[in-house]
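Weekly structure sync - notes
Attendees: PM, LS, DV (DV joined late)
Agenda: review two folding runs queued last week.

Item 1: First target. Sequence and structure tokens pasted below for the record.
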Amino acid sequence: MKVVGVGCAPGLLTDEARRVLAGARRVYGSRRAIGIAREALPRSCEVHEIRDYSSLDLPDDAILLSTGDPMLAGLGYLSGEVIPGISSLQIAAARLHLPLSRIAVVVAHGRGHEKGMQETVEEIRRGKIVFLLADPKFDCAELWGRLSGISPPLQVALCENLGYPDERIVTVPVANPPAITSDLYSLVIGHF
């Protein structure tokens, strides 16, 4: 099996991903990942949408699509060759002109909301900028409250729909947080 990162939005497939997809016989992935990769797939390729990732049982010759990069909260933990993709972290860092070496990644997407809040506060106190992958159920108001007492005051960049035509990045003080308008978002928090 191969796990192929398709990038975080259309138009971000790498040449390596395109080469692997050009020879695909069977592809599996979320609706979003399939949509991103569709134009690179051969017409004869079987395409299977996955809705439940809890018990994957795929054939050895399967290509599993992962949005963004499989190693950033993706499917890179599965066995098989991993083909990297362009992640939302890379896009956010580029748009905000932030070196990746200054950033700590915190994942609170689909699990571990409390742990994600604790890790965010800890990393900021260590002097890092946090890239937080969250989901629509994540309680941002609670996070803003926990961060409000940190000095000097922090900034937050809300990054929505990165790489899509309706991409939106808003940078404001954490004391005056932006309204989240999309389910596809990440946060960059710290001194930057």
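Item 2: Second target, run right after the first with the same settings.
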Amino acid sequence: MDEPTWSWARDRAEPFFGQGHAAAAGDVLAAAGLGAAAAAAWLASLACEGWSAHAAFAAADELQRLGRADAAAALRLLAAARFPSQAPAAAPTPLLPLLKQTKAYLDALLQQAEALRQGGREVAAAVLFAEHERLATRLGLPPAEGSRTALPPLPVPRALGATASSRTR
């Protein structure tokens, strides 16, 4: 039961029961043709069992089939941020027309970054381009043509209790 061995990434119960079963129930329900129940099971899996690419993308696909394009798009974007190598090709979110202030902010970032670049302020321009790219990526938008900055790597998740034992000694 020492800290490095036993992960606190999700709640656990002994004996092993209920961990992973919601995702499996989603697969069974989908095979039985019960799409709404399958989507609910996969979403429950994400909430209580931790994120898995299979459950996230399967739930998004099922939500799309059920006519919930808004929820499907939001879930796909969250899943793509967690599992970029397994994500399907990015497509602009159908939520963008509803996010008028976010779109205006993205446009303002791009305009200001270009103005800073033309004024010779490359570092400030790079910071604004990076912010634009970070948000645009989250919304499934293609990168800006004038952007020459690379996105920073996604942060590596860390266990919250990893250093707690070293501080108490």
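Discussion on item 2: The chain has two domains: 21-82, 91-169.
Action: LS to circulate a short write-up before next sync.
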